[in-house]
Write a structure and sequence with these properties.
Mean pLDDT: 78
Structural class: mainly alpha
Oligomer: single chain
Radius of gyration: 32 Å
Largest sheet: 2 strands, antiparallel
Length: 146
């Protein structure tokens, strides 16, 4: 089967990308928060041995808040920018696909792996059901006899 992808709905792509990019931003924000906290802790340990100025003490103490804010900001930033970039990309794809044609795909059906019932023979096929035509002849059952 050959199909051609002519159009992508920008809103559906935007919603999915917002969630995926938000999840990625959440993980990256957590990594940044841990890195900020570790650097501040290291700065605090180094400063204690060398006589840290009072201003540095306040910065080291506020790094927990800075790390949480960075985590939240990165999550939102990734989600919004990711959704914006994908929306722009889908709009551009739709514009170009309308002018030049979409992406052509060849799809193949995969055989089903649903096991047959235990009482059915191995080579049995299910009966074909066609509901588009009536099962009785409109002329009646004796139309062949005449």
């Amino acid at each position: 089967m050959r199909y051609q992808l002519k159009r992508i709905d920008p809103w559906s792509a935007c919603k999915i990308t917002f969630l995926i990019a938000g999840a990625v931003g959440f993980v990256i924000g957590a990594l940044y928060a841990v890195a900020i906290t570790m650097m501040a802790s290291f700065m605090g340990m180094m400063g204690m041995s060398e006589g840290m100025p009072d201003e540095m003490g306040y910065i080291v103490g506020a790094t927990g808040l800075i790390a949480v804010v960075a985590w939240i900001v990165l999550t939102i930033l990734y989600a919004v920018l990711g959704a914006l970039v994908v929306s722009l990309g889908t709009w551009l794809y739709n514009l170009l696909a309308g002018a030049m044609g979409g992406v052509t795909m060849t799809l193949e059906t995969i055989p089903s792996v649903i096991p047959a019932p235990a009482d059915a023979p191995a080579d049995a096929t299910p009966p074909a059901t066609d509901t588009s035509t009536p099962s009785t002849d409109p002329a009646g059952p004796d139309s062949q006899a005449s």
